[in-house]
Amino acid sequence: MRLDRLLAQATGLSRKQAGIEIRKQRVTLDGEVVRDPGLRVPPDAAVRWRDEPVALAGPVYLMLNKPTGLVCARRDPIHATVLDLLPPDLAARVHIVGRLDRDTTGLLLLTDDGDWSHAVTSPRRGCAKAYVAELAEPLVAEAEACFAEGIVLRGEKRPTRPARLERLDDRRARVILHEGRYHQVRRMFAALGNRVLRLHRESVGGVVLDPELAPGRWRALSNEEIARLADCRARAEGEV
Ligand code: URA
Fold first, then answer.
1. d(Cα 159, Cα 149) in Å, to the nearest integer?
2. Burial of 39 (C-beta count, 10 Å sphere; 0-12/13-18/19+)
3. SS (HEC) of 6-64
4. pTM for this predicted structure
């Protein structure tokens, strides 16, 4: 694979930015500084960017800033999907770890490591997910207590797990959930007679959406982020 392509795929840089990084001599191949973005990288070569290893050979772990209007599906007859934001060979390789609704924005994880995505999404582990919701109506006084106690959603019998609601202002709240039912945040607010106008996921398992990632952009997770998510249960237990 070409060096600029590999760097772009592994880091979330555009091909153009990857080329600039290479020309600025910030990339090494087997310890040697390289300057040619078109260089062919042998499969076993050690590539480093700004002194960090860059690799596509092993499993792939990505974070993406989901824009509104895209669906979380491999393909859709009507809408563009979040996978359309990735280069085709990478899109074919990964799956989505915990979907977001079409209108929800924010942190989306993708990987080709099935065990890891199971650890992140397993209901038994209860990995914490933080959302910010903008609401049509002012929050009712008992909102925090209702979220903490659990809410029986329309059409369901079992109440939601204890969740934390932090009032940010009259019509805005941060919600921390430890489960992922269908449209859960929207349905929890609907049960309180409110309506979510905008919903944004800030973090999963303590890994926060990178503020440098514009909507539609993505990057590889760091080793620390990958490990933190694989082990998210311990922190999740202390959070609500
Ligand atoms: N809850 C929702 O209602 N929608 C999402 O996309 C995620 C959580």
1. 8
2. middle
3. HHHHHHCCCHHHHHHHHHCCCEEECCEECCCCCCECCCCCCEEECCEEECCCCCCEEEE
4. 0.78
Task: Report how far Cα 108 is from the mean position of its chain's Cα atoms.
Answer: 2
| 184 touches ligand 1 (CB under 6 Å) | yes
Q: Does domain 61-230 have CATH number 3.30.200.20?
A: no
Structure tokens, 54? 């860059």
Q: Judge if the beta carbon of residue 185 lies within 6 A of ligand 1.
A: yes
Q: Dig out the tokens for 220 from the structure.
A: 């590889």
The overall average pLDDT reported for the chain is 91
Architecture of domain 3-54: Roll (3.10)
d(CA 65, CA 12) in angstroms, rounded, equals 11
Q: Is the pLDDT of residue 12 over 90?
A: no
Token readout for 208 is 């926060």
pLDDT attached to residue 56: 63
Q: Known catalytic residue: 36?
A: no
Q: To which residue do tokens 């153009």 refer? A: 16
Strand partners, 63: 109, 219
CATH 3.10.290.10 in the chain, residue ranges: 3-54
Give the mean model confidence (pLDDT) for residues 193-199. Answer: 98
**Token pair of 163, please?**
């969740």
Among residues 76, 84, 101, 231, the one annotated as catalytic is: 101
Q: Distance between CA 49 and CA 56 in Å, rounded?
A: 13
Average pLDDT over residues 98-103: 97
- The atom number, within ligand 1, closest to the CA of 186 reads 3
From-to residues of CATH 3.30.2350.10 in the chain? 61-230
